[in-house]
Design goal:
Mean pLDDT: 96
Structural class: alpha/beta
Strand order of the largest sheet: 3-4-2-5-1-6-7
Shape: globular
Largest sheet: 7 strands, mixed
Number of domains: 1
Distance between the termini: 10 Å
Helix content: 40-55%
Order of helices and strands: EHEHHEEHHEHEHEHHHH
Bound molecules: adenosine-5'-triphosphate, magnesium ion
Strand content: 5-15%
CATH superfamily: P-loop containing nucleotide triphosphate hydrolases
Low-confidence stretches: none
Number of helices: 11
Radius of gyration: 17 Å
């Protein structure tokens, strides 16, 4: 079972959009896919059309061992969801109170269900909180990045935090790229600085991506010939290759 976490401590950069569409793509390829929403905002959960008030078992219930069995939300065939649920903040505090190695619990839990899935895709909050720390520790780390100078500084914060956990970055996904000189310049700088880590394929700015989320549809369902669909297919394929799937 492969595990990937989509991270960036900046808000609104496209993490949830990326997890949502990658998870749909992997499931469409026949991979048994588990999406995990670790963000207390629960955007991924609602994007999948799951009402947070109706979540039976939350991520915290598993990590804090409040339930004996594994019962994920079924989004569709091959695509399951675990949500942080409405008590995410309290659950993170309780998890952290368990001791200095609290962040290894998610990895242990994923080990326990490893025969049930081919790939796990984890959405994270725009913060280095207890669940983001756990996700980074457990997974291959893929920051998403909007081309911009402040964003580049933010990327370094993510890289440093990942290093502190003894992990390295698996791949940087350039997202919401526009046809501007600045965008091109940042891409070039990234290619030099992160050779082999920056994915070759990028996600262009595409309004259909924003629209599809409102319709609770993946970009492949909403607008299969859009740039968004083309770009996410290519990025998903590149990630599968990197992960050895
Ligand atoms: N490639 C894209 N082109 C155009 N709009 C996009 C693209 N990717 C994401 N968006 C839009 O940008 C907004 C923020 O995206 P998203 O919610 O995925 O970011 P996020 O990083 O998960 O935010 P948060 O940090 O709050 O969780 C949304 O309205 C989304 O529809
Ligand atoms: Mg999000």
């Amino acid at each position: 079972m492969k595990k990937i976490a989509i991270v960036n401590n900046k808000g609104g950069v496209g993490k949830t959009t990326t997890v949502f569409n990658l998870a749909h793509y992997f499931a469409k390829q026949g991979l048994k896919t588990l999406a995990i929403d670790t963000d207390p905002q629960l955007n991924l959960t609602t994007n999948f059309g799951v009402n947070p008030g109706e979540i039976k078992v939350s991520l915290g219930d598993y990590l804090l061992e409040r339930v004996p069995e594994f019962v994920p939300e079924i989004v569709e065939e091959n695509l399951h969801l675990i949500s942080a649920g409405e008590a995410a903040e309290q659950d993170m505090a309780a998890l952290q109170a368990e001791g200095p190695y609290y962040y290894q619990t998610l990895n242990d839990f994923l080990d326990y269900i490893k025969n049930q899935y081919d790939i796990v895709v984890i959405d994270t909050a725009p913060a280095f909180n207890a669940y983001t720390t756990s996700a980074i520790y457990a997974s291959s780390v893929y920051p998403v990045l909007i081309p911009g100078i402040n964003e580049l500084n933010g990327l370094n914060a993510t890289i440093d935090f990942t290093k502190e956990l003894g992990k390295k970055i698996s791949g940087i996904i350039l997202i919401k790229k526009e046809k501007t000189a600045l965008s091109d310049q940042v891409e070039e700088q990234l290619q030099q600085e992160f050779e082999g880590i920056l994915l070759n394929k990028i996600i262009r700015k595409n309004v259909a991506l924003a629209e599809s989320i409102i319709m609770h549809q993946s970009i492949f369902e909403y607008a299969s010939s859009s740039n968004g669909a083309k770009d996410y297919s290519k990025v998903a394929k590149e990630i599968m290759k990197k992960e050895g799937i």
